[in-house]
Amino acid sequence: MDDTELYRERILRHAGPVITGRFIGFRASYTREVKVDQPLLVAVYLTASIAHAVGALLLALLRSGGRGTRRSFKDLKKGPEYLVTEVRLRDELGQIYEVEMHGQLPQSALHRDDLVQLHTRAQKDPDLPVKLHHLVNLTTLQPLTPRIPTMWSHLGPGLLIQAGLGLTIVMALAVAWIS
Length: 179
What we know:
Elements: H1 3-6, E1 11-12, E2 18-33, H2 38-62, H3 73-78, E3 81-90, E4 96-102, E5 115-121, E6 131-137, E7 142-144, H4 151-178
Parallel strand pairs: 1-4, 4-6
Antiparallel strand pairs: 2-3, 2-5, 3-4, 5-6, 6-7
């Protein structure tokens, strides 16, 4: 048995919604994937395909060729990844707490020994530490919220505009067919 096992610090996983303490540092980061809702993705992709096909047809009539680059359904189904970083802090009693931060904060936002107040939420998996919702750096009085990508930012404005146009085309055709 070596010295690191004898003097290992005990890490606590706080269950409360607010933790106040001194920022110790970040641990190694890794990525997780955002879950993409399949039925909604299929609807957006199909309606965007209609608008894309109409646009490609119009471009083909105006000039030869002209298909733009487009992400495949398989790429969209995978979902965006976000960064997961463990944040450590020490309270006034000297106890160390570990909290998961999803997303990123500016590098200059936190410095070692800054007094911080973390607002946390429990995660679905009870084996994971609580998730950092937002924090306030009490040393600088700066409120901070980590940002993660969403399904909508993953799909992108171009695909969403195409889906809206495709839905409009489908609705217009349905109204014309019913009339």
